[in-house]
Specification:
alpha/beta; binds inosinic acid; 3 helices; 22% helix; six-stranded mixed β-sheet; Rossmann fold; globular; 181 residues
Amino acid sequence: MCLIDDLESVLLTDDQIQDKLREVARRIEADYAGRDVLLIGVLKGAIMVMADLARHLEMPVSIDFMAVSSYGAGTTSSGVVRIMKDLDRDIAGKHVLLVEDIVDSGLTINWLLRNLRSRQPASLDVFALLRKPEALKVDVPVRYLGFDIPSEFVVGYGLDYAERYRNLRCVGVLRPELHAG
Ligand code: IMP
């Protein structure tokens, strides 16, 4: 049984994702010319986008990760966030780019931005690979965006359903019979 057979549809192919990351990497290189950038990824969803974006960037970058848990029922976020793993280093005075897999309600990222801003980085911006329409209702300052996608639960390229499908190269919608919610 092939993992991709569990998808009802493929929203984004590996090629489309990589082309977009290359394009965003060129913008980041131009915007941060002459400055060292710290990429902060949010585990575990951002691992694939972090690995690929970092390798498309032809400039020096540092990488750090945080892990957070959002308390919420099932597949929705409540906005109450707990840090499960904090950054290894202080970010005061650094140019920070937060790398996110997906912005859905926007609650998690807004909480993270408040938390990171209080640590006084020199600058703080967001790259999100995917954004759902709900996120447009709250003020989520996404400077670099991969794709706006429909309000459907998607998996692949780091995104999971019950910890599965993160290792799919594409992003797709799960077949309904495999999706409890
Ligand atoms: P938010 O706080 O509602 O923006 O939710 C953000 C987090 O919820 C993301 O970092 C993901 O971990 C998870 N999430 C939101 N939508 C999806 C989805 O369609 N598939 C998988 N995970 C998702």
